Amino acid sequence: MSIKENKENIERIKFLSKELKLPYMMGNVEDEIKEANLEGNTFEDFLREILEREYDLRKENGKKSRIRAAKFPYKKYIEDLVIEDLPEDARTKIKMFSSLEFIKTGQNIILAGNPGTGKTHISIGLGIKACNAGYKVLFTTIPLLVNELKECRSQRTLRAFENNFEKYDLIIADELGYISFDKEASELLFTHLSLRAGRKSTIITTNLSFERWDEIFKDPVMTVAMIDRLTHKSYIVNMNGNSYRLKETKQWLQEQ
After folding, report:
1. Is the pLDDT of residue 156 over 70?
2. Do 112 and 238 touch, CB atoms closer than 8 A?
3. Cα distance between residue 155 and residue 195, in whole Å
4. What is the pTM of this model?
5. Which of these three, 49, 69, 89, is where a domain ends?
6. Could you tell me if 204 and 176 are in contact, meaning their C-beta atoms sit under 8 angstroms apart?
7. Is 234 found in the same domain as 147?
8. Does the pLDDT value for residue 138 go beyond 90?
9. Domain count, the chain
10. Is the pLDDT of residue 28 over 90?
11. What pLDDT does residue 167 have?
12. Terminus of the chain with fewer CB atoms < 10 Å: N or C?
């Protein structure tokens, strides 16, 4: 084969790779061919190796895409937690949660306790782990979720929002308890979190104990119903303890 023909073949392979959405092959086919020739690889070996690398790249891109789509406010990893600094109840359960079995069984996790004890870190860490395992995840705060629900109702797009909301394997609803809601907001939140109960997983972080949830929803009947739906076959984690965040801040200041 002449140099010209070889060059034309390479360009054709790159074109076809682009059309077939094979980015690794498109960007690396020349180097892969040279390496295969130098090592005397068979065609089968060459084809297997380049397809494996294409597969690995696609998997890695899929993870990154799911993490972006989840809308985490920042990245936190379970592996970065100092387990000894967590409240006792969290220490005993974090390994079990890290298996992601709760997502397979459609169970909820409620992290309840005072601020700064690692609730959001744990929830984001589990969310990122779920994204890497192939699950579809959404992170939102309760106030943001309520605002979205109200906007969708006013724009008559609530049904489309509901359909998308139900498709997530895991929803992380952060900061329940920082603001209270009017009747419309309470009803919308109750309806949409109830849609997932027993089928899909939700992680909720809250700074309030259950007996104080009526401060948020202003309706004792709805409060009882909400707690009943969310806690059925769920993991309740007592996150009361020393501030994890405050300890990190003190350590940071000492290092300056």
Report:
1. yes
2. yes
3. 21
4. 0.87
5. 69
6. yes
7. yes
8. yes
9. 2
10. yes
11. 93
12. C
State the pLDDT at residue 178: 79
What is the DSSP code (8-state) at residue 76? -
- The CA–CA distances, whole Å, from 136 to 60, 126, 167 equal 15, 12, 8
Q: Are residues 183 and 106 in the same domain?
A: yes
For 78, the token pair is 């379970």
Q: CA-CA distances (angstroms) from residue 91 to 24, 189, 237, 238?
A: 42, 30, 10, 10
Same domain, 44 and 77: no
On whether both 164 and 209 belong to a single domain, the answer is yes
List 205's β-bridge partners, or say none.
Answer: 111
Q: 74-110: per-residue pLDDT in tens?
A: 999 999 999 998 999 999 999 999 999 999 999 999 9
Both tokens assigned to 131: 């994204």
Looking at the structure, do residues 31 and 81 belong to the same domain, yes or no? no
pLDDT for residue 246 is more than 80: no
Q: What is the CATH number of the domain that holds 212?
A: 3.40.50.300
Query: Rounded CA gap, 241 and 238, in Å?
Result: 9
DSSP 8-class letter at 108: -
Q: Tell me, what's the pLDDT at 216?
A: 83
> Could you tell me if 154 and 227 lie in one domain?
yes
Average pLDDT over residues 14-20: 91
- Residue 209 DSSP one-character state: -
On whether both 203 and 187 belong to a single domain, the answer is yes
Give the position of tokens 């059309």. 19
Task: Tell me which of 52, 69, 86 is where a domain ends.
Answer: 69
Identify any residues that bridge with 56 across adjacent strands, giving them in sequence order.
Answer: none
**Domain that residue 63 falls in:** 3-69
